[in-house]
Amino acid sequence: MNAPLPPLSKLIKIPGIASPVQSETISHFEGFGNYSRLFFLGKSAPVVVSQTLKLFELQLPNFLRVSKSHLVNPQHIISLDNLKGRSNQLTLSNEVFVPVSRRRIDGIRTQLSVQGVH
């Protein structure tokens, strides 16, 4: 029997932010070393925290790891676009473009087709 899917929205505690944050307000994460940048909807500047993408990936199982340095909220994906050559990118609802790694593209396409994103 299949295990139930985790809820799409969840409160998570983020180091450096006093109160827990709704996961649906996060558009994506960008990792660099042992730090992550969190991009919130409606805010122009990211929040930098001293936590790796791997830890956020474990806390937010519905988010998609699209490359070594990007974790994306699937609720905010508008489209998956094929660029010149073998490059692909996601377009998010806040008009941000996120690269998708070549080795992860097939899995991402499968997950997005289940969610109805083209």
From TrEMBL:
Domain HTH LytTR-type span(s) in chain numbering: 47-114
InterPro entries: LytR-like, LytTR_DNA-bd_dom
PANTHER family: STAGE 0 SPORULATION PROTEIN A HOMOLOG, TRANSCRIPTIONAL REGULATOR-RELATED
UniProt name for this protein: LytTR family transcriptional regulator
UniProt source species: Spirosoma liriopis
